[in-house]
Each structure stands twice: as structure tokens, then as C-alpha cells.
Amino acid sequence: MADLAAAVGRTLGVLTFPLERSKLRELALALHDEDPVWHDADSAAADGFDGGVPVPPTATVLAAHWSDGGIIGPPLALGMDIRRLLHGESAWTFTGVPVRLGDDLTATMVVADVTERPGRTGGTMTLLKIDTAFVNQRGEAVAALRDTWVEKAAP
Amino acid sequence: MSAVPSAPIPLAAGDVLPPRTVGPMTRNHFVRYAGAGGDFNPIHHDETLAQASGYPGVFGMGLLHAGILGVQLARWVGPDNIRSFAVRYTAQVWPGDELTFTGTVTDVVDGLASITLEVVRQTGEVAARATATAVALAP
């Protein structure tokens, strides 16, 4: 995976995506939450959100709809094998700037780290960490995400 | 449904996330999340490819149960109060699984609560372990 190691520090892409009502409703329902607070202004106001409609903490995944190959596009573009690919970790930090339906977030993805380890049953497994920074339409940092992708050792 | 907090809530060590069980998980749930979250890795919906890759069949994406856990966390502490949420995927989620989502405040320091959370399969196997921090009020 010498090529992959050489990618550390590379910016994989910058994209801007909308936190739009239909996708947020679809996401909330897919996450087994039917509360309209996640997509309806009146419901959000009734819960005390006077600055708009809040979003679930993992709503940054909606960037995938604007990224080549969706959520697994980056590890595949870097040469990882889809048959051996697993998601290892997802770690968000939030600045405290509220994220609201209607925000446009700009995501910047950077290869943070590549590590190789012996696989449990031989061979070599590879861990790929990708950092994504999210900034809103006012230029305020709202969140950062570190994804760890695992390519299991070849059988 | 109970209101989602718009402001920090009082939290103290030992407080627990209202536990919730979701399931049985189905292929339909996986496909629904694939469309919602933009994860069309075929290993989560293509039985033939999943088996050719050495799995008994398709399994759920980590971001599905991480997302369910995240929305439960947000319903508890308030979405604007979460400062970190880190999820490690420790086992696969299979069709038919009943998942239980739990969380406990471990400590509160300077108005920031530390929380550990888990997603547990009906077998007792932990599918995901998570930590979170959230701004909270003194109880």
C-alpha cells in the first residue's frame, strides 16, 4: 500500500452541500425517528428551537450525495478493495455553532493517516483515516469528522 | 413524543440514556439508510456480492446504527449541546438483529458531561461502542 501511504496529507476534495428538508426527513426516518422536529419548523419551534430546525448529529453524511461514489467513494478512489472494506470508526467533534435545516455546509476531506497491521489470520490489513472539516455558509466551522476505513487482509 | 431539548439539561454521573430497542433489523432498513445516507456499498444490499466476499449475507452499515444512537443521544442531551460523538464499529449487524441502544454519563466536569454508549445485539455482542461529550447544567 505504498501508493496509499503517499496520499497522507492529500486533499481529496472540497464540496458544498445543502441540508435540505426532504433529505433530512428521509434520514430521520431511516434512523427510526419519526419526530417531525427534524424537518418541520413548527415542531422545532414547539420544542423551543427558535433559530430553525435542528439536525441529527450524523447529518454530515448528507455530503455523500455530492461526492463521487458516495460515502465509500474516497477509500475506493484511494485503491481499497470493496470486498475487504469495513468502516472502523466515525468520530465527530462539534464547535457548538448550531447546525440547521437550510444551512449549506462546505466539506473539505484530507487523508490524515495510513497504517498497516498484521491481519488476525495472516496478511496485512490497512487502516485509512480521512478527516473532513465542515464549515457553514457564514464561514463558521461547525464540525469535524474522522473516519477510519479498514481494508481487511487478503484471504 | 417527548420534546427534544433546545438548551442544556441537568446531567450527573450515573444518569442514563432512556434505553431503546430497535428491530428486528431488515434488508429494507439497510436499503432505506443506503438511500438516505448515500451509502451504496453493495455489501449492504447485494447478497451475491456479500457471500462472494466471505460473509453469510448482507449486513447493516455502521453509520445506520451509529446514526440511530446519535439521534437517541440528541433526543436526550439536545442536538446543539453535543460536542463530540465517536463511534467504533465492533461487530456486524445482521438482518433479524434486535439492537439495544444504551448510554451512561460517566462524569461531568466544568459543565461538560462525558457519556459512554453502546449498541448491543440480542446475543449480547456489542456492535458499536461510543463516547460522547455534551454541554450540561449542574443537576
Automatic annotation (TrEMBL), chain A:
Pfam families: FAS1_DH_region. Residues 6-143 form the FAS1-like dehydratase domain. InterPro entries: FAS1-like_DH_region (IPR039569), HotDog_dom_sf (IPR029069). SUPFAM superfamilies: Thioesterase/thiol ester dehydrase-isomerase. It comes from the Bacteria. Signal peptide: none annotated. This is FAS1-like dehydratase domain-containing protein. It comes from Paraconexibacter sp. AEG42_29. The lineage of its organism: Bacteria, Bacillati, Actinomycetota, Thermoleophilia, Solirubrobacterales.
TrEMBL record, chain B:
Residues 24-118 form the MaoC-like domain. It comes from the Bacteria. Belongs to the enoyl-CoA hydratase/isomerase family. This is MaoC-like domain-containing protein. It comes from Paraconexibacter sp. AEG42_29. The lineage of its organism: Bacteria, Bacillati, Actinomycetota, Thermoleophilia, Solirubrobacterales.
